[in-house]
Write a structure and sequence with these properties.
It is a single chain. The protein is α+β, with helices and mostly antiparallel strands and about 350 residues long. It contains eight helices and 20 strands. The strands form four sheets. Strands 11-10-13-18-15-16 form a six-stranded mixed beta sheet. β2 and β3 form a beta hairpin. The longest helix has 12 residues. The N and C termini lie far apart (about 55 Å).
């Protein structure tokens, strides 16, 4: 019998009940946190998890889950991550080139991925996703990587660089390694751990965005970074929670404030494990989409939805013509109902 056949309660069976997804149940006022989420996800056996979920499901939940606006550490981390760019410590080489130095530490941390729900993550600098690294094409990047976890890890940067800087060699617990290379090409890249088994190291949280700005600056805009991801709470190879920047319904709880007529630029990537495709759909508006975004003068795709496979990324540019709340979410309905949903609020 397959693992999926043995499951008592899959994410899809939760959705078939008519609830607003598992988060609508787990995050509801009916949730007995002492029964379930007083523990972290990997501390629970499958039978204990399913039993607790069944106890909550009997209460039911109206369609249209409202996550509320209560401030939590996870929500605040997601709000902060939206506009947090790490430009490193800047210096100049003898030949006048810009050097950017970064410090990244891998460690095991519990992270809050929804109200009352903690995930036993493997993190870069204590967050999932890791910090958004930013530089300009041609800069010398120097990343001091320290492994403070109990597992071997690395940092594999997407882009063009020498193969000995590719992050294929594991860095043992307690050790350090310095990655150094010239940043190229311009566009949105990503980084992640490349130690086998990749499915585990990526799913547990070791990834982030890596922005290489073109030498010719892009047009001024309100900029933000979004990493689409998922979390498998019972470790069965299926995600039960989907998020942007690591927290379910973050930008539904706290809509993203924008101004009408203002250019908004979103650096969007997909690091969702276990699902081959994720997506971004914007309501009541269209946007320009630049795959990878290496050339600011390239002809964009004009659309209201894009799909990305794992590791794919691109740049969205959009303006909001009139005041109002513009919903955005994954166009896989179950992803949206399980946490991947938010709003832009144009004023």
């Amino acid at each position: 019998m397959s693992l999926n056949q043995k499951r008592d309660l899959s994410r899809r069976s939760v959705l078939k009940i008519g609830a607003a997804g598992i988060l609508g149940v787990l995050g509801s006022s009916f949730l007995n946190t002492s029964a379930l989420f007083g523990k972290t996800a990997n501390a629970m056996g499958k039978e204990e998890t399913n039993h607790a979920l069944h106890n909550q499901l009997k209460h039911g939940m109206a369609h249209g889950y409202d996550p509320g606006t209560d401030s939590t550490p996870g929500l605040e981390a997601a709000v902060k991550a939206l506009t947090a760019f790490d430009y490193g410590v800047v210096s100049k080489s003898l030949d006048g080139r810009t050097i950017r130095e970064y410090s990244i530490i891998a460690s095991e941390q519990e992270v809050e991925i929804a109200k009352g729900i903690k995930f036993p993550g493997w993190t870069y600098n204590g967050t999932i996703p890791g910090p958004t690294i930013r530089c300009t094409e041609g800069d010398i990047i120097r990343i001091k990587f320290g492994n403070a976890s109990s597992h071997p890890h690395s940092i594999h940067m997407h882009g063009i660089h020498p193969t000995n800087m590719d992050g294929l060699e594991p860095v043992a617990p307690g050790d350090e390694f310095v990655y150094e290379f010239e940043a190229k090409p311009a566009g949105l890249q990503i980084y992640h751990c490349h130690v086998p088994p990749l499915v585990r190291h990526i799913h547990k949280g070791l990834y982030g965005n890596f922005i290489i700005d073109p030498k010719k600056p892009r047009k001024p805009a309100k900029e933000m970074t979004m990493v689409m991801n998922g979390f498998d709470l019972d470790l069965d190879g299926e995600n039960e929670v989907y998020t942007v920047n690591g927290y379910a319904f973050a930008y539904q709880s706290k809509p993203i404030k924008v101004k009408t007529g203002e250019l908004v630029r979103i650096y969007l990537s997909n690091l969702t494990e276990f699902d081959p495709i994720n997506s971004f759909h914007l309501h009541a508006n269209f946007f320009n989409y630049y795959p990878i975004g290496a050339d600011p003068d390239a002809r964009p795709l004009f659309t209201d939805i894009v799909m990305q496979c794992q590791g794919e990324r691109g740049i969205i540019e959009v303006t909001f013509p009139t005041p109002g709340k513009y919903m955005f979410h994954a166009h896989q309905s179950e992803f949206a109902e399980l946490g991947w949903m938010g709003f832009f609020e144009a004023e």
